[in-house]
Amino acid sequence: AEHFHWAHTVDRLKIAQRLNDQRPSTLPALNVCLQVNIDREPQKAGVAPDELKNLAEQVATLPNLMLRGVMAIPAARDDTAAQRQTFAAVRACFQSLQGEYPQMDTLSMGMSRDFPAAIAEGSTLVRIGTDIFGART
């Protein structure tokens, strides 16, 4: 936790506590995004949408972490309307926390295959590695 400024995949209190404990007090708080498993896919990490508020409450108490946003990797969908519907659900999760945590300004969603739909639904950060580096082999 001393070598980076952001963690985008916090989905359990245990991870948050470990990051908090290992963040040197001489550095600013580590920015974190809570990962939500919006489609409840068993093979993916992330907290269930109905557990997000509880995790946010716990993370917000850790002095060496700064709760900055929500991150999601939804199930792959080819249909733009379906992509937007899922991203809208992630945005709703994000907005439901913003009232209590006004420092939350990051909505990390969208990858090479679906980033236009994510941006249309309010994403502030997209991950487009495949478009930059090519497909994984």
Concise structural overview:
The chain is 36% helix and 20% strand.
Keywords:
5 strands; 20% strand; five-stranded parallel sheet; globular; TIM Barrel; alpha/beta; 137 residues; single chain; 5 helices
Structure description:
It is a single chain. With 137 residues, the protein is of the alpha/beta class. The chain has a single domain (6-133), classed as Alanine racemase (TIM Barrel, Alpha-Beta Barrel), CATH 3.20.20. 36% of the residues lie in helices and 20% in strands. The chain contains five helices and five strands, in the order βαβαβαβαβα. It has helices spanning 13-22, 52-60, 80-98, 115-120, 129-133; strands at residues 6-10, 30-35, 65-72, 106-111, 125-127. Strands 1-2-3-4-5 form a five-stranded parallel sheet. Strand 2 (30-35), helix 2 and strand 3 form a beta-alpha-beta unit. The longest helix is centred in the middle third of the chain and has 19 residues, at 80-98. It is globular, with a radius of gyration of 15 Å. The two termini are 30 Å apart. The mean pLDDT is 94.
Topology of this structure?
Layout: E1 6-10, H1 13-22, E2 30-35, H2 52-60, E3 65-72, H3 80-98, E4 106-111, H4 115-120, E5 125-127, H5 129-133
Parallel strand pairs: 1-2, 2-3, 3-4, 4-5
The end-to-end span amounts to 30 Å
Largest sheet properties: 5 strands, parallel
Question: Low-confidence segments, ≥5 residues, pLDDT <50?
Answer: none
CATH superfamily: Alanine racemase
Q: What's the β-strand tally?
A: 5
Tell me the domain tally. 1
Q: Report the C-alpha radius of gyration, rounded.
A: 15 Å
Question: What does the overall shape look like?
Answer: globular
Under the CATH scheme, the architecture is Alpha-Beta Barrel
What CATH calls the topology is TIM Barrel
Total helix count? 5
Helix content: 25-40%
Strand line-up across the major sheet: 1-2-3-4-5
Question: What is the CATH class?
Answer: Alpha Beta
Label the structural class: alpha/beta
